[in-house]
């Protein structure tokens, strides 16, 4: 069994001793296999990850290593999912990774450790270089956070719906305005917590989406967001000035950033008759999306926290909405800024590159 090193690039050879020293001292495992699946080179870290002595790892068939080919996540593009089945081999996976210039996670050994693998041709015949890293702790943390998030989100949604429903009944049936006002305050807080749960899910989705890209019509997205805003807040007036289409190759969660800007406008405007205006226009090599409100504006301390990229117990924002907006725009390779509106309010500016 063999393979060609298509698309391989030559390794620098001006100082072999230097590169050998770097590979030998690397904390990540590095090894190479030839076209028959035989290990031709391995550093101490690679041998340790597979429970082998560095001197005995070289010359072994890679399929004899203590590694079960069980993909721990959905394989990346270009990777044949069958390598995770009974007929798959470790060699098959490595060659698929090299051809796709991709990465994958596999379960290894009886202890169920998780390794992240990356492979590529190295320009020496049919050899494939592999970089391997133990991500067991990160994978366990990811799973634990996923379960905790699911349980918390479900319980929080159920409880807030229950509290909000009872508060709404009390508000309607209250015998006096003071009681109704207390019930209204409880209902408002329950709705705020429900929105917080939704934002937490959006944040989780963002973290798990990586650098995904999709063709997004920014104009249609903005129109859809403001239409949803009116459905949720009928007293709010909206206006959109945008071309028929404004397409960009950007992160698929771009809509979340616009929705956060629109909701922020309503929350800070406060009055029932508030107005939100949005524009989409070409600005050089960027699409410029602006959402403006007529409220009191975003407090300076909220914006300062975003500028510092950090919070503390004594210096923090009032929620995660602005952070979510910032992180989504970052994933879009965009730019986020805030300006004062005239005569009052805030203009949230989101700039998305035409070409990534």
Structure description:
The protein is an alpha+beta fold and 356 residues long. The chain is built from ten helices and twelve strands. The strands form three sheets. It has a five-stranded antiparallel sheet. A five-stranded mixed sheet has the order 7-9-10-12-11. It has a two-stranded antiparallel sheet with strand order 6-8. A hairpin with a 5-residue loop joins β1 and β2.
Task: Describe how the helices and strands are arranged.
Blueprint: H1 16-25, E1 29-33, E2 39-42, H2 44-49, H3 54-57, H4 90-100, E3 103-108, E4 113-121, E5 128-134, H5 136-173, H6 177-209, E6 214-217, H7 218-232, E7 237-241, E8 247-250, H8 254-269, E9 275-283, E10 286-293, H9 300-308, H10 321-331, E11 335-340, E12 346-353
Parallel strand pairs: 7-9
Antiparallel strand pairs: 1-2, 1-5, 3-4, 4-5, 6-8, 9-10, 10-12, 11-12
Put the structure in a nutshell.
With 356 residues, the protein is α+β, with helices and mostly antiparallel strands.
Shape type = elongated
Helix and strand string, N-terminal first?
Answer: HEEHHHEEEHHEHEEHEEHHEE
Q: How much of the polypeptide forms β-strand, as a percent range? A: 15-25%
Please tell me the CATH architecture of the largest domain by its name.
Answer: 2-Layer Sandwich
Strand order of the largest sheet: 2-1-5-4-3
Helix content: 40-55%
The name of the CATH topology of the largest domain is: Heat Shock Protein 90
Number of strands: 12
Count of runs of 4 or more consecutive helical residues: 10
Please identify the top-level CATH class of the largest domain. Answer: Alpha Beta
Distance between the termini: 40 Å
**CATH-defined superfamily of the largest domain:** Histidine kinase-like ATPase, C-terminal domain
Going by helix content, strand content and strand pairing, the class is: alpha+beta
Tell me the major beta sheet: 5 strands, antiparallel
